[in-house]
Design brief:
This protein has 360 residues and is α/β, with parallel strands linked by helices. The strands form three sheets. Strands 2-3-4-5-6-8-10 form a seven-stranded parallel β-sheet. Strands 11-1-12 form a three-stranded parallel β-sheet. Helix 4 links the parallel strand 3 and strand 4. Helix 1 packs across helix 8, helix 2 packs across helix 9 and helix 8 runs parallel beside helix 9. The chain is globular and about 50 Å long. The structure holds 5'-deoxyadenosine and iron/sulfur cluster. The site of iron/sulfur cluster has 9 residues, from loops.
């Protein structure tokens, strides 16, 4: 399938509705990936450093008002020990993730961990996903050693954004967009993404999301299916959702189209995709994704990082998890690339355009 240079929103909408044979779409996306960056699979070790959050998104289990979650924040030594384990097994990129917290203690803790990384594992790329922070905090974390930042737009539709978030002054579409622009323009490798299959979300909304990501010129994409959670306000809308398989297919079509519109970026086969579909990992990679994020959070904490239901809590060691991952990738003819930071070509060209140094 050949996608026109500048596809219209209506064409994308039709493709998301399943107008073309899916296998053909996925094959084209795969072809694009191979041509642009090879078929290697990059890994990011995720460490869910805290499940505290000041926000109250209607879809998310970590929302402030959810009293049924045992809140935790990992100690720096626990984070460092997870990093060391991942590093010793060949991981060279780590994602520190938490709910949104603005407190000085949290910032200082994260900055401290990043400084440790700059000093002890300087060849590792540190990715942060800590929500929408003040510009000074973004700067501070970059100086401390952060390389990449993931801030999902969640949806590029203002109306849907408003329907998914409380109107309490903390959840503003405009502010989120501003934060994302700031990240992009200050040298961060910048990632964004959306939730797929939210109640009330149309294929037209998703087509708009694809064009938004292309026009915004991001370096990485993290997007996955919405999965219901019994402790959130959106639980009451569960009868209106598309089936799990429909959300999976939509996610795969979004992945393939994102790959075709943004050939040189990193795109993850997300945990949510792997949760909603048994072979989500293989299916995501075959639709054009090239990044997988094994979870390094200690098990006692991981059970409390419940954004949605059904997240698998495998008791395997990291070594076993990596072996399984390698075998599953090999099963679809793809090789896991260890000892490699996995920077996307688009970031390099973007930095050159910005006239900046690539290496810091
Ligand atoms: N289903 C899937 N993903 C979710 N997230 C939050 N809640 C859910 C859910 N119910 C995602 C959001 C957020 C990321 C941390 O987790 O996109 O950015
Ligand atoms: Fe907090 Fe992020 Fe969940 Fe919203 S989606 S409640 S900001 S963790």
């Amino acid at each position: 399938m050949v996608l026109p240079e500048n596809p219209s929103r209506s064409l994308l909408e039709e493709l998301l509705e399943g107008a073309g044979p899916d296998e053909e779409l996925f094959r084209s996306a795969r072809g694009k990936l191979l041509e642009e960056m090879g078929g290697e699979v990059y890994l990011r070790g995720i460490i869910e450093i805290s499940n505290r959050c000041r926000k109250n998104c209607f879809y998310c289990g970590l929302r402030r008002d959810n009293r049924s979650v045992a809140r935790y924040t990992m100690e720096p030594r626990e984070i460092i020990s997870a990093l060391q384990e991942g590093y010793s097994l060949g991981l060279r990129s780590f994602l520190l993730q938490s709910g949104e917290m603005l407190g000085e203690r949290h910032m200082e803790m994260v900055a401290g961990v990043l400084e440790w990384c700059s000093d002890r594992i300087p060849d590792a790329r540190m990715v942060l996903s800590l929500g929408e922070l003040p510009e000074e905090a973004f700067d501070r974390l970059r100086i401390a050693g952060g390389h990449r930042y993931l801030l999902r737009m969640e949806t590029s539709s203002r109306d849907l954004y408003a329907a998914c978030h409380p109107r309490d002054g903390l959840h503003s579409y405009g502010e989120r967009l501003k934060a994302l622009e700031y990240l992009r323009d200050t040298g961060w490798q910048t990632g964004t993404g959306v939730l797929i299959g939210l109640p009330g979300q149309s294929e037209r909304d998703l087509a708009g999301d694809l064009l938004f990501m292309r026009d915004f010129d991001i370096d990485m994409v993290g997007m996955g299916p919405y999965i219901e959670n019994g402790s959130t306000p959106f639980w009451k809308l569960r009868d209106r959702l598309r089936s799990g398989e429909e959300r999976t297919l939509l996610t795969l079509r979004m992945t393939a189209l994102a790959r075709m519109l943004l050939p040189g970026v990193n795109i993850a086969a997300t945990t949510a995709l792997q949760t909603i579909s048994d072979r989500g990992l293989e299916r995501g990679l075959r639709a054009g994704a090239n990044v997988v994020m094994p979870n390094l959070t200690p098990e006692k904490y991981r059970r409390n990082y419940n954004l949605y239901q059904g997240k698998t809590l495998v008791g395997d060691t990291l070594e076993e998890i990596l072996e399984t991952l390698k075998a599953r990738c090999a099963g679809i003819g793809r090789e896991v690339k260890l000892h490699h930071p996995g920077d996307p070509p688009r970031y390099r060209s973007r930095m050159m355009e910005m006239g900046d140094a690539i290496e810091r």
